Amino acid sequence: MDPRTPCLIGIAQLTIREQPGPEPLDLWEETARAAAGDARLPVERLDSVQIVYTDSWQYDSPVGRLAERLGATPRHRAYSKVGGTAPQSLIGEAAARIAAGDIDSALVTGAEALATRRAYRNAGEHVPWSHPAVPKPPYGWERPPHPSALAHGLFLPVHTYAIMETARRAAFGLTVEEEMRDRGRMMAPMTEVAAANPYAWRRTVRTADELAHGDRFVGWPYTRNTVAVLEVDQAAAVVLASTRLADRLDVPEERRVYLRGWAYGEDTWEVGARPALGASEAIGKVAEAAFLRAGLGLGDMDALDVYSCFAIALRQACDAIGLDPLDPRGLTVTGGLPYAGGPASDYVLHSTATMAGLLRARPGHGLVSGVGMHLTKHTYAVWSSEPGGRLGSASPVFVAEEVPVVDSFDGDGVVAGYTVAHGRDGAAERGVLVVDVPGGRAYAVVEAAGLLADAESRELVGQRVRLVSDGEVNVAAW
Q: How far apart are CA 407 and CA 229, in angstroms?
């Protein structure tokens, strides 16, 4: 074997339940030291330190502050942008540098302390965390939302993903009730996995019926107990090394896990610009490339962790790669973002660490996927207890073509997908539509209470509507 072959040799996860808990810098340090200890590697010898973007706090020098805490002087440093594919992109970059002989070891860590932020907020106190960035930098978007999406209040994933869910529901000819019941059946097994995961945020087993009907709506048709839980205090870290260094550290063969192949690709950045709202062409292309690079197929996978921030992410993945949502292997090894925890951009570090631990205990192959932004960015990674394959890179294997989004529109159109936003009291507040119009698509809001009730009582996709615009916001009625 090439002595530069990268392998994952250290893993760590952490969940803090006492509130308020520590700040992200503390969590980065604790998991970094734990993962390095698992790898038998002194932290000060790390060649690369990479951190997944944290929503919890803006530090003046995130990687610098962590390196200082660790006593490390890494020659490669990176701090990612926002997005659920960021952990795999950092891991892929680290593996590529190791394979090229540029470095021998790399740490990738990430943490969120949003539950602690909420605890301080509820107590009416400011967060007393260290080293704030002054001035505060802009949010870590790779690309900000479309101005028309912002004008229509369409920027939260709980609404954009729900729009894609209704589009798929209509495309598959499901009733509102059938979609909700199918969602419950698909996600109930995930709660069982989370209940057995000591690092899971929610560890209560739920029935399919409880998940379908047992909680308030957030972005209709999604209920609170079937969407990612963001306000968690969780951290994870992995250490990768060259086979040469793993040998010097006397890391046993059975504790080495190999990245057999991975790939990245993109759907459109705007939900309204997707050629088919309920489907993803990118996922199929990305998975195909990852399997090809790994020299393996879906049938070879012994375990799976499919990104699960919302049901539509699971469903589009299953549709694209030919996976049964009720596959006996299960869709997750962690419990998924709604139950194990959805620490902003960091979840894939947890699923990767969990998969690596599983492959150490039961040799075989595992698939870990990631999703970023509004089902825009996709990563698929094949991990294995056996070396082989070829890594791949962050260059996109597919980029979807965009349908034009019309900012302002007066006239008739046809609903392509929609949601109804609900407040914390459970009441419907407004509807948001993606409408097929001449020349492309337009966003629109629904304000009338009677129309909101109608939208939740039946399938609105395919409904002809009239849009009236004030130049910035289109209001829909029918």
A: 32
Mean pLDDT over the full length of the chain = 97
Other CB atoms within 10 A of residue 303 CB: 19
Torsions phi, psi for 176 (to 5 deg): -55, -45
Asked if 229 and 215 count as a contact pair (C-beta separation under 8 A), the reply is no
Please check whether residue 432 is in contact with residue 418, taking contact to mean a CB–CB distance below 8 angstroms.
yes
Q: What is the pLDDT of residue 144?
A: 85
Q: Is 386 exposed, middle or buried (0-12, 13-18, 19+ CB in 10 A)?
A: middle
290: confidence class by pLDDT, cuts 50, 70, 90: very high
Q: Which residue has the tokens 């419990």?
A: 335
